[in-house]
Every structure is written in structure tokens, then in C-alpha cells.
Design brief:
This protein has 370 residues and is of the alpha/beta class. Helix content is 36%, strand content 25%.
Length: 370
């Protein structure tokens, strides 16, 4: 007997169109309905993927008989739409970020637990073989002392002008942090955990937007370790680089992965060496490569569908999605208050702060030329 197919709907046909391509390639999935406020796009995508039920009204769309819904709409709609889908007895795949504020994100997870459904979040880097290998190597470093992460790329003004919600506090809830660098914040906390304190500086350097396009932050961890984090949308050529050091060595990941491991703990050497200018034995750097695997959005979608069939947590759960939202909020809060913030951040305090950003009562630093 042929098993029943997982019935799926997709709302938001920008990124949603990418997911539709992956879903339609899966024999165990039936795409029941799609939804978008742009009728022209809706009809075109419906014809392309042979979906018969088309909706411009989300409230009508969500009443369809479906097992799961993909939420691929702008950030400001995630909270309301995810909760509506959960309360309509549907599992949810939500594109990143899970929400604009950590309070909203936690409420979404709470509702999912209440109704017995799962939320998956669109962080496809969790499927990347190199990212997974870095996570496997980090414990070999022993106690972490320091890390450095840079994620620097470029967006044009035309990109921000393409949608009224982009680069706004009401619609996007931030700039480079909540849209692009949220992927990087997710893998950073996945690799080395959540910090205890955050000190941030975010500013609008080159774009005519309300939100940040250049950010620096210091993360301080429970053991006193520090990480410097920087994100930019005014950088060319683009680069992403991660470096982490511990008592037993160092990893540098800049597309390639280099790993150096010491013979003994550097902390023990510091305390026990009797020479004023003593140096530990030289270490050899080695290039390490993961086994080749397919990765990306397709793998994340496959995992989500499998999690429904198998009755388990998805690879990137709603609980995991909360963490990167909190880091975004913490950096913005620290910037506006001009002081370090302790995690977990004050949820009500951040809600009040972002309302002040939306109303213009508060702002981040802007270059005088803008």
C-alpha cells in the first residue's frame, strides 16, 4: 500500500519559489496550495509548478487541509502567520529569521509545544559539510579562549528600494544582522554556544535605510572567552572568515579549513613553564576536508519532511531559531543603550526599545553624509 503523501502549502513566492522546486521533486510530498498577495506572481508560479489552489488571502489559505506550511514572507509577518498555522494544526517551516524579537520567537515555540507541532527554521548552513566538520573539530581544542568571525558582503541601494519593508525597523527589524548575518550568528552559537554578555556597535554607513549595514560586536562567554564578530554590506570583495583558539590549538575557516593541535594544554604550559621567554613546541597546520555531501535548501527541506513522517524534531528546531534572534536583539540593544547587555536580554525592554526605533524616538549611529 502506497503511504500517504505529506500535504504542504507555501506562502510567499520569493524564497517560497525555491522551496517549491525542492518540494515538487519529492515523491512523498503533495503541494496542495500556494499563497501570495501578488496575483500575477501567484498565477505564474501556480502554472509553473502545477498547483491548482491559489490564494491571495492568507486566512483562507491556512484553512486548507495540509500537514505543513512553509512561511516565506517578510519578517514582520512571521510571528502572526506561524502562530496561525500552528493553531490550524500544521507543522511549520519558517524562513529565517524566526521572528523580529526574541519574545515573539519564544511565543511561537511555546504555541508549537502547546499544540504538539514542530517549527523548522531555514538555516541551511547546518547541512554544510564544512560547517559540520568545524563543529566536530572544535571540542578537540579544549577550553576556548578567543574567536573571530567576519561576514562581509555587499547590497546595493536598489536591493533595499525593491521592497518597502526592507531596511526598516517595522518591517525587517534590522539590517545586515537580521537578514544576512543571522545565518552566521546561528552557526557561531551552534559551534561555541551562546555568550553571557554582548557589546555591540551598529551603524548605517552607506545605504539610505533606517537600519544597520555595518556592525561590530564583542561576545563574552561564561568562562571569560571572547569573540569579535563583524558584519558588513559595504564590502567588496566579499569574505567570510572564522578563527577559534583553545587550550589545545586553533582552527581557521575561510572556505578552507586549517587545523593546528598542540601536544599539551597551553594553559598548563603557561602556568608550569619556568622560562621567562619559554615557547611551547611548534605545531603543524593541516588542511582538513569533509566527505563530499550535498547540502543547502534542498537538504533542509528533505529533513523537515522526514521529521514530520518520523515524528521527530527537525534539524534546526524553533528552539534553535530563538537563539540567533536573541543575538541580533542583544547587539541592537547594546548599540542603542551604549552599554553591554547580559543574556538572556530583557524581553519587555527590547520590545519597548524597538518600538522607539520604529517611531524615530531612538536611532543607531548614521554617517553625517547620509
Amino acid at each position: 500500500m502506497q503511504p500517504e503523501k505529506v500535504r504542504v502549502g507555501v506562502v510567499g513566492l520569493g524564497m517560497g519559489r525555491v522551496h517549491l522546486g525542492n518540494l515538487k521533486a519529492m515523491e512523498e510530498v503533495e503541494v496542495v496550495a500556494i499563497c501570495d498577495i501578488n496575483e500575477e506572481v501567484l498565477k505564474k508560479v501556480g502554472e509553473e509548478f502545477q498547483v491548482k489552489k491559489l490564494f491571495t488571502d492568507f486566512e483562507k489559505f491556512i484553512t486548507e487541509d495540509m500537514d505543513a506550511v512553509f512561511i516565506c514572507t517578510p519578517h514582520f509577518l512571521h510571528h502572526e502567520q506561524v502562530i496561525a498555522a500552528l493553531r490550524s494544526n500544521k507543522h511549520v517551516f519558517c524562513e529565517k529569521p524566526l521572528a523580529i524579537t526574541v519574545r515573539e520567537a519564544e511565543e511561537m515555540v511555546s504555541v508549537a509545544n502547546e499544540v504538539g507541532k514542530e517549527i523548522a527554521v531555514g538555516f541551511q548552513r547546518r547541512t554544510n559539510p564544512k560547517d559540520k566538520l568545524v563543529k566536530e573539530l572544535i571540542p578537540e581544542l579544549g577550553e576556548i579562549s578567543r574567536a573571530l568571525y567576519e561576514t562581509c558582503g555587499l547590497r546595493t541601494q536598489a536591493y533595499y528600494d525593491s521592497g518597502a519593508w526592507r531596511g526598516t525597523w517595522w518591517g525587517e527589524g534590522g539590517g545586515v544582522l537580521i537578514n544576512q548575518a543571522v545565518h552566521d550568528l546561528d552557526v557561531c552559537q551552534w559551534w561555541i554556544g551562546m555568550p553571557k554578555y554582548v557589546m555591540g556597535w551598529a551603524e548605517t554607513f552607506a545605504h539610505k535605510i533606517e537600519t544597520e549595514d555595518l556592525v561590530s560586536a564583542i561576545f563574552v562567554y561564561e568562562n571569560g572567552a571572547q569573540m569579535l564578530f563583524q558584519a558588513s554590506l559595504v564590502n567588496h570583495p566579499s569574505l567570510t572568515r572564522f578563527e577559534v583558539s583553545g587550550e589545545r590549538g586553533c582552527i581557521i575557516y575561510d572556505g578552507n579549513i586549517r587545523f593546528a593541535k598542540t601536544e599539551a594544554s597551553i594553559l598548563d604550559f603557561i602556568s608550569s613553564c619556568e622560562e621567562a621567554w619559554g615557547k611551547p613546541p611548534e605545531v603543524k597546520w593541516q588542511d582538513v576536508q569533509p566527505a563530499q555531501e550535498s547540502w543547502g535548501h534542498a537538504e533542509l527541506v528533505k529533513d523537515f519532511i522526514s521529521s514530520i513522517v518520523e515524528g521527530r524534531k527537525p534539524l534546526v528546531s524553533g528552539e534553535e531559531g530563538v537563539k540567533s534572534v536573541e543575538l541580533v536583539n542583544a547587539i541592537i540593544m547594546s548599540t542603542v543603550l551604549r552599554q553591554p547587555v547580559e543574556l538572556p536580554i530583557d524581553r519587555e525592554g527590547y520590545d519597548a526599545l524597538i518600538e522607539e526605533l520604529r517611531s524615530g524616538k531612538r536611532s543607531i549611529y548614521r554617517r553625517p553624509t547620509l
